[in-house]
Design goal:
It is a single chain. The strands form 2 sheets. Strands 4-3-7-5-6 form a 5-stranded mixed sheet, sandwiched between helices. Helix 2 runs parallel beside helix 6. It is elongated and about 50 Å long. The chain has 6 helices and 7 strands; from the N terminus they run E-E-E-E-H-E-E-E-H-H-H-H-H. It is of the alpha+beta class.
Length: 184
């Protein structure tokens, strides 16, 4: 075990050992840097919700089984409840709050509204973050593939057919604004 204050090498990066008490951490979230003092054991989810008042990612199971806390770290889906905040220093974190462009909802957010892909809405932020990543990863060939790659995100209201419809709509380039106008 390295001495306190020493450096260790992990995956080619030199990391200064810090702790066990509170440490200063700077996280880049949705393009903005946020510096806070936290204990090394604080999860990314708790740092987002309790320290930064970013409540989009939800605390569902707090065990990594429901997907309600899904965010992206360097463009990859992660469960924020299982990720230590301090391990995200120097990385780009994207939350549901950072998905929209100013006042314009992301195409997936629009599709979730148009396809009624939410019921209570609790799982919706995690579902949307996973759905966008799913498309970027190229895992939306058919419903079976969508089901498989979205299986880490649970919807207790069982809106799965609508969630898949929203994913297909974005995958297929359906303009949700036009669709919503026709529905009115």
């Amino acid at each position: 075990m390295p001495a306190r204050g020493s450096a260790i090498t992990e995956r080619g990066r030199t990391i200064e050992e810090r702790g066990p008490g509170p440490v200063e951490v700077t996280l880049k979230i949705n393009g903005a840097e946020h510096t806070m003092e936290i204990e090394p054991r604080v999860s990314l989810l708790d740092a987002l919700r309790e320290r930064l008042s970013m409540t989009g990612a939800k605390k569902g199971c707090d065990q990594g089984t429901c997907g309600a806390c899904t965010v992206w770290v360097d463009g990859r889906r992660v469960l924020a409840c299982l990720t230590l905040a301090m391990t995200c220093e120097g990385r780009e974190i994207t939350t549901i709050e950072g998905l929209a462009e100013k006042d314009e909802l992301h195409a997936m957010q629009q599709a979730f509204v148009a396809e009624d892909a939410f019921q209570c809405g609790f799982c919706t932020p995690g579902q949307i973050m996973s759905a966008v990543a799913l498309l970027e990863e190229g895992h939306a060939g058919d419903d079976a593939e969508i089901k498989e790659w979205m299986s880490g995100n649970i919807c207790r209201c069982a809106a799965y057919p609508h969630i898949r419809a929203a994913i297909r709509a974005v995958r297929d380039g359906v303009n949700q604004a036009d669709r919503a106008d026709r529905a009115e």
